[in-house]
Amino acid sequence: MTVISGTQCVSSVQGEISDVLGIPRHKIDVKVKRVGGAFGGKETTAGMFASATAVAAHKLRRPIRVLVERFDDMAITGTRHPYRFDYQVAIDDDYRLLNLDVQAYSNCGATIDLSGGVMYRTMTAIENVYNIENVDFNGKLCRTNIASSTAFRGFGAPQAMFCTETIMKHIAEEFKIDVNKLREQNMYNEDDVTPYGQRLTKCNIRRCWAECLELSKYETRREEIEQFNKIHKYTKRGIYMMPTMLGIGFAEHKLLNQAGALVHIYTDGSVLISHGGMEMGQGLHTKMLQIAASCLEIDISLVHINNTSSDKVPNASPTAASGSSDLYGLAVQDACNKLNKRLKPFKDAAPNNSWKEWVMAAYSNRVPLSATGFSM
């Protein structure tokens, strides 16, 4: 069975269809050319539509197409998790953060979906860019009668950052100090350790902050805006700068930090790439084309990206957690490096030949021109 689905994870849809129909995964091929926007919303929810379509196709033995009307789509589709934060914070006489106690409540909607992972990311992002000696975080998942909340860009971290920056603003207003000075007083330094035990190496938080202040001419613009607001009663301007820190990759489920790719070289010199990632507007396919062309030292016009397909790259992880370019780029590079190693004897033997001639020489000597790549 071949299924075309607008999803961020072909393996997930493949598995759901397999469970629903009671047939093994090797009989189900899920394909995606590109997705018209996603960033979390199509990580888990596409399976319900794909599974229903697959049941109809399996029963009727004919092609089935399902398009969800806009009203139904909006009613079903989940959004970012709304949060409520209750907090207590302690500081010393130098306004250094000593203790942060946070109780977080997330509105999960009708089902659990990815709410546990979202809360986990909220927990590991709660300190934002600040070195807090003690952090006590308690999160509760709240089941409610709305559409199930799901993955959404940032995956719980923006909520945590907003909470922490609200706290910083609260402290600054309470003690009548500049919030940016308060931030700088508490930012991480090199080799500091986060509340969850990660040692920060190559910590550029302070450098990035200073450069942003300088390049944006923040202080000058803020003074100009304050003067403007004093003399204009109805028209107001504003400017704000806020630091953020976001970890990439899957933290709670490290097994998902893996990627595969398949690269074919044809005898006319053209190259076909298959990888497990989804193109959803972030330019992933373009990056993979560039990596392959650079590794093989050929013109990018010779390289083509195939559909993302579960029969080409099995067990693909979701395109999520801001890590797809890193993972799939290394997988494509790994496959291309294997092919370069096989072509090297023919390049060394005839360095003035063309790419196509090297490929034909390898083919004539029965050298395989396909390779898989893997990264983790």
From TrEMBL:
Keywords carried by this UniProt record: 2Fe-2S, FAD, Flavoprotein, Iron, Iron-sulfur, Metal-binding, Molybdenum, Oxidoreductase
InterPro entries hit by this protein: Ald_Oxase/xanthine_DH-like, AldOxase/xan_DH_MoCoBD1, AldOxase/xan_DH_MoCoBD2, AldOxase/xan_DH_Mopterin-bd_sf
Keyword Transmembrane helix: no
PANTHER family found in the cross-reference section: XANTHINE DEHYDROGENASE
Family to which this protein belongs: Belongs to the xanthine dehydrogenase family.
Ranges of residues in domain Aldehyde oxidase/xanthine dehydrogenase first molybdopterin binding: 1-187
Domain of life: Eukaryota
Name the record gives this protein: Xanthine dehydrogenase
UniProt keyword annotation of Iron-sulfur present: yes
Domain Aldehyde oxidase/xanthine dehydrogenase second molybdopterin binding: residue ranges: 212-374
Cofactor: Mo-molybdopterin; FAD; [2Fe-2S] cluster
Any GO molecular function: iron ion binding
